[in-house]
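Long-time lurker, finally posting.

We've been working with Class GN sortase (Candidatus Acidiferrum panamense) and I want a structural starting point before designing mutants. I don't trust myself to interpret raw outputs, so I'm hoping someone here can both generate the structure tokens and explain anything notable. Sequence follows.
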Amino acid sequence: MKPLRILVAMILFAGASLTARAMYLDAKANLAGVLIHRAWAKTAKTGAPQAPWPWADTHPVARLRIPRIGYDEIVLEGATPRTLAFGPARLFSGANLGEPGNVELAGHRTSWFRPLEALDAGDQIEVQWFDTRRHELRERTYTVNDIRIVSPEEVTSLAPRSDNALTLITCYPFGPSPRSPQRFLVLASPAGPSRSAETSRLANRAQL
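Top reply, 14 upvotes:
Generated this for you. Predicted structure of Class GN sortase:
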């Protein structure tokens, strides 16, 4: 009986360890989310880049919203593997927020960009950022023109552009599948010029 008791104790200990680790990772992710939102709130007020924690090598640069599917996340700068663990991020190969060109945002298919599988052509995507030239928070609404599933080598959609555009990128298929041999692209164009976020907020309140 003694070997059996030892085996049972070892199984219970392993289970408790895995549960504790899962709880720790969940708490860590929740805390990171709170700190990232706080950093974005400061950036939205002052325009100065705010690291979410002292040793972070990234900072919030935008807020990404898709009203129809209830999506609302903070975008971080630099889509490195470390940064993508904490949220969607801007690819350095794309245009900067508020500048002419194709703004490229990436996110994991199992978390931050998993909701993109519910997108349809014609959906509205809202991007908010701080314009350092105008010293104000601005936003632009994009309309989804096309949704494509392509191979990793097919990068024509990510070529530099002179006109304004938005591309959302994630791996495919969605979910916990161990393999993701394809890429899911959401291609969108501006529904109009950028506008002051404060003006937009007041206009929305007036319509209520």
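Before you design anything, note these points.
Strands lie at 60-66, 71-77, 89-90, 102-106, 124-131, 136-150, 165-172, 182-190, 195-196.
The first strand starts at residue 60 and ends at 66.
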